Amino acid sequence: MLYSEKVMDHFTNPRNVGEIEDADGIGEVGNAKCGDIMKMYIKVNDGVITDVKFKTFGCGAAVATSSIATEMIKGATLDEALKLTNKAVVEALDGLPAVKLHCSVLAEQAIKSALSDYYSRQGIDPLPIVGEIGECEACH
Prior knowledge:
Blueprint: H1 5-12, E1 25-31, E2 36-45, E3 48-57, H2 60-73, H3 78-82, H4 86-92, H5 101-121, H6 127-130
Antiparallel strand pairs: 1-2, 2-3
């Protein structure tokens, strides 16, 4: 399996790893069955994601997609973050092997799960905004 230089860079030097103690939103996706679990923490100020951290248990592609996804939404508005797609994550990494595409889906879902949690904490119904968060295809 061949990974791009960007994937290797984000795997060996992941950005924004860790937890945010007083996070405004926390999202967790994946499960132990497929082996990839992503937890995303966001801080929001005036509708902008001011900080984002992640903890990922999984393969190199899972770590790399989490890392680049956090880079892509840091400083973004909530609306911009909601529009982040797994396709954009894959493109930002200069591609992923087909068998690892589900990792990019998990990264998108982890962000949407954290945003959903944020909206719930604000008393806003998150479902029309975020939609249902499913499992990765590898789990089925």
